[in-house]
Amino acid sequence: MQQELPITIAADSCFSSSLKPLLTQLEMWINFQALKADWYGNEDFVLSFDFTLVRSLDEKMQQMKTARAASAESWVVESGYAYHYESSSLMTIAFIAVDDLLQGGVGIEQAIKDRLIAVANTVANSVGSEHGFLALS
Fold first, then answer.
1. How far apart are CA 59 and CA 72, in angstroms?
2. How far apart are CA 96 and CA 69, in angstroms?
3. Residue 1 reports pLDDT greater than 80
4. Beta-carbon neighbour count of residue 82 at 10 Å?
5. Cβ distance 81 to 57 under 8 Å?
6. Cα 58 to Cα 105: distance, rounded to the nearest angstrom
7. pLDDT tens digits for 111-129?
8. Mean pLDDT estimate for the chain
């Protein structure tokens, strides 16, 4: 039986399946960053993240409001990403926007990494210092 990684990254259905190698690379990279920062040291308190690359946050958040009006209100929306942390399951669902990155055309992978790290660190910081999460870099 294969155990799923605590941090997963997928792409919205509007993207080509040719992104799969990049998604796998990003997933391995961010899980390794979390491992280096000892985020998995306490098996009773492992933060999980379900990242999805989307074209536009506006579009995705509108879909969320249409589907589930109440849940869309509990999302934190920042420039380039949006997330919702569920404390009872230690799970964060996050959307990473890429349209603005594609327009720039250079450094897209690093910009995606920056957004992944921003969400992960913000959630880890909000959980509280009693769990001693080091910032990912």
1. 12
2. 20
3. no
4. 22
5. yes
6. 20
7. 999 999 999 999 999 886 6
8. 88
CA distances from 126 to 43, 69, 77, 117 (A): 19, 25, 15, 14
The residues with which 94 forms a beta bridge, in sequence order, are: 51, 83
> Judging by DSSP bridges, how do beta strands 48-54 and 76-78 pair with one another?
unpaired
Rounded to whole angstroms, how far apart are CA atoms 111 and 131? 28
User: What CA–CA distance (Å, rounded) separates 75 from 66?
Assistant: 14
Question: How many angstroms separate the CA atoms of 8 and 29, rounded?
Answer: 11
Show Cβ contacts of residue 29 under 8 Å, excluding neighbours closer than 6 positions.
113
Instruction: Tell which phi-psi region holds residue 128, choosing left (phi > 0), alpha (psi between -120 and 50) or beta.
Output: left
Which strand (E) or helix (H) includes residue 24?
Answer: helix 20-36
Which pLDDT does position 129 carry in this prediction? Answer: 63
pLDDT in tens, 50-87: 999 999 998 888 877 776 654 556 889 999 999 999 98
Say what the pTM is: 0.89
How far is residue 66's CA from residue 45's CA, in Å, rounded to a whole number? 33
